[in-house]
Design a protein that fits this description.
This protein is of the alpha+beta class. The protein has three helices and eight strands. The chain starts with about 25 loop residues before the first strand and ends in a 7-residue tail after the last helix. The mean pLDDT is about 90.
Length: about 170
Amino acid sequence: MAAVCLLVSRSGRHLQRYNNTGGRQVVGCIPYRFKEDMMSNELELEVLLVSSQKGEALMFPKGGWEIDESLEEAASRESMEEAGVIGSVGNQLGQWNFVSKRHGIYYEGHMFPLFVNQQLDIWPEKNLRKRVWMTVPQAREICQHWWMKEALDILVKRLSSQDTREL
């Protein structure tokens, strides 16, 4: 049976969750894969960043957590909508409070790892965003948000440990 994928992004704020101070609750993913290094034959961790809708800044896919979905469902949806990837969502990397640049209030951000097993050629925000696979050091340097960088550090530590039950 073939998988069917809805190729329309959710929009609007009518299903959006807010915290007790009026800030949005957002959920993001760090899409990752392992790519074989041709020189050393070792596997190298790569992560996927996307451009923001309003510019060239790169970050991990993220968006609003809506009232009709779990955190994991929101993380998976945002990765498909913004980056065109599908995969397995792992255990939450953490929760951060950060100030929205646009609104000046605290938002609540949740981050998850997403092991990518399918990269789509067509996805809802293909015409709005660029997606770029890169190494962890490159992502750490380029990503615009401190809290996403902290989530990346947690993912790298988790992946490098012997105990993969936390993934």
